[in-house]
Amino acid sequence: MMGVGAVKQDIKAMILTGFAGLVAGACSMAIGEFVSVYSQLDIEVAQMKREKQKGEPGGERSEEEEDGEKESLPNPLQAAAASALAFSVGAMVPLLAASFIKEYKVRVGVVVGAVSLALVVFGWLGAMLGKVPLLRSVLRVLIGGLLAMAITFGLTKLIGSSGL
């Protein structure tokens, strides 16, 4: 949205871009997560089979233990759905922020403000869940997000103004 907002003041273009980014990003994140977790699952299942065939310690397990191990294996579909949902929630922030503001400069400012607030919240949440220092986590997420928006806006503005 920031890239299109750098070269086009039309609200419809910005909203359409935001929606396309939401769908594309959610799909990309879900597919990447599915492939990654499925690969991890394959490795863990293969390791369990090797241990069972070699008769290594722990290789001979009761049915209950095997069922427990199978239940603790990662689920690629759950991981993909969680990733798509998390991306979609994050992508809704700028989309909703821009949806109701017709004035171009105000719209861009509101998007930056809303996304900055969301980045602070996500940084805080990550710090709480990971039990890591709060300020460092918040600043890392906020600065990373602001840099991404600035680079996208700046490069698109540069390319758009050069007539490419």
From TrEMBL:
Region called Disordered, residue ranges: 49-75
Q: Please state where this protein is localized.
A: Vacuole membrane
For whether the record's keyword set contains Cell membrane, the answer is: no
| Protein name in the entry | Vacuolar iron transporter
Record key words, sorted:
Ion transport, Iron, Iron transport, Membrane, Transmembrane, Transmembrane helix, Transport, Vacuole
Q: Which reaction does it catalyse?
A: Fe(2+)(in) = Fe(2+)(out)
One Gene Ontology MF term: iron ion transmembrane transporter activity
Query: GO biological process annotations for this chain's record?
Result: intracellular manganese ion homeostasis
Transmembrane spans: 12-31, 79-101, 108-129, 141-160
InterPro entries, from UniProt?
Answer: Ccc1_fam (IPR008217)
The species this protein belongs to is Quercus rubra (Northern red oak)
Origin superkingdom: Eukaryota
Composition bias (Basic and acidic residues) maps to 49-61
Q: Which GO terms describe its cellular component?
A: vacuolar membrane
Indicate how the chain sits in the lipid bilayer. Answer: Multi-pass membrane protein
Q: Does the keyword Cytoplasm apply?
A: no
- Describe the family membership recorded for this protein in Swiss-Prot or TrEMBL: Belongs to the CCC1 family.
What is the role of the protein in this entry?
Vacuolar Fe(2+) uptake transporter.
Taken from the record, one Pfam family name reads VIT1
